[in-house]
């Protein structure tokens, strides 16, 4: 089981959240990624995600995404990602759980089960089949994270738990590490000197994703 965050996509050209003075692509996070932001200025929020979607369509998976897909040749791999990009899928990973939603989907703003594919801009006035404004299929700050219900059992059953490129500060996702078993082998790959979670059997690979994931995957694929 692999938990990924913004850092795994950094080398594909997608900025992380917490490395630019608290601003996300020049916006305050609460303006573009919260129910209040949506209430205050829908056009701003729609435009922000339209830009993110265009940017994503120009990016490609990197060595770390591909290496994780190669792990499937030997292991039953589930990727639990906080990322809203589709780079794991494009690299070939077949089981990907998106905790925080997906940029290439949109949904009704009155019925969260009405979800549609979306490769284009969402505009004010674009409506779902029930006549409500369509919104990005993104879990904003302050909203529930329904995919946690699927993620927790996967973590509990994992023999190997790999964390890549997340600051582990946003809950509930950051708490997933606490559902691992004592004997689960755990690796954390990140280039920063972050505080490590206090769990047993954790090894820290202090490298960028393309280097650290490639190294670990090679090790896991070759060991008996
Ligand atoms: N390779 C691996 N990790 C990297 C790289 C890289 N090339 N570059 C940066 N990082 C690391 C940083 O050191 C940091 O620990 O990636 C992490 C990024 O942390 P955040 O920006 O906080 O991103 P993330 O943990 O994914 O944020 C969680 O917060 O804003 C919300 O919903 C959003 O899903 C997001 C959540």
Description:
- With 224 residues, this protein is of the alpha/beta class.
- The protein has a single domain (2-222), classed as 3-Layer(aba) Sandwich (Rossmann fold), CATH 3.40.50.
- Helix content is 30%, strand content 19%.
- The chain has eight helices and eleven strands.
- It has helices at 6-10, 29-32, 35-40, 42-57, 63-70, 87-91, 148-157, 209-222; strands spanning 2-4, 23-24, 27-28, 79-81, 96-98, 101-108, 115-117, 134-138, 160-164, 185-189, 202-205.
- It has a six-stranded parallel beta sheet, sandwiched between helices.
- Helix 5 (63-70) runs parallel beside helix 8 (209-222).
- The site of adenosine-5-diphosphoribose has 22 residues, from helix 1.
């Amino acid at each position: 089981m692999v938990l990924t965050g913004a850092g795994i996509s950094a080398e594909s050209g997608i900025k992380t959240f917490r490395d630019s003075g608290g601003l996300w692509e020049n916006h305050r996070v609460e303006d573009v990624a919260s129910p209040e932001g949506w209430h205050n200025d829908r056009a701003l929020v729609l435009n922000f995600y339209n830009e993110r979607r265009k940017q994503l369509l120009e990016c490609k998976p990197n060595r770390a995404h591909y290496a994780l897909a190669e792990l499937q040749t030997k292991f039953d791999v589930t990727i639990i990602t906080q990322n809203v990009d589709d780079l794991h899928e494009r690299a070939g990973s077949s089981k990907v759980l998106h905790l925080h939603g997906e940029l290439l989907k949109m949904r009704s703003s009155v019925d969260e089960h009405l979800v549609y594919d979306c490769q284009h801009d969402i505009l004010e006035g674009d409506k779902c089949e029930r006549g409500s404004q369509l919104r990005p299929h993104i879990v904003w700050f302050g909203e529930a994270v329904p995919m946690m219900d699927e993620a927790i059992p996967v973590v509990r059953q994992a023999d190997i738990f790999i964390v890549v490129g997340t600051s582990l500060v946003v809950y509930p996702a950051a708490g997933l590490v606490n559902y691992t078993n004592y004997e689960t082998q755990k690796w954390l790959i990140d280039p920063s000197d972050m505080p490590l979670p206090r769990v047993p059997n954790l090894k820290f690979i202090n490298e960028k994703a393309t280097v650290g994931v490639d190294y670990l995957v090679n090790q896991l694929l070759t060991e008996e």
